[in-house]
Write a structure and sequence with these properties.
Blueprint: H1 3-36, H2 40-47, H3 50-67
Helix pairs in contact: 1-2, 1-3
């Protein structure tokens, strides 16, 4: 992979991280709202929607890190 492709891939990965974190923030706020209104069971159910997002963000960050390591091509 050439340097330009690496940069593009890392930028795309980081943009996806941001988008997923924005979605995660909306989910967390919804869970917090449920909890604040006394619906703790629903809050946990909503918050579980974060599991896949957290996993995806971790994967994207790992991929970006591996791609951007010096000496990789």
């Amino acid at each position: 992979m050439d340097a330009n492709s690496q940069d593009t891939t890392v930028k795309t990965s980081l943009a996806l991280v941001r988008a997923k974190l924005e979605m995660g923030l909306r989910i967390a706020k919804a869970a917090e709202g449920c909890s604040g209104s006394g619906r703790t069971g629903k809050a946990i159910e909503v918050a579980r929607g974060l599991e896949e997002i957290v996993s995806d963000v971790n994967t994207l960050l790992n991929a970006a890190s591996i791609i951007s390591r010096p000496g990789k091509s």
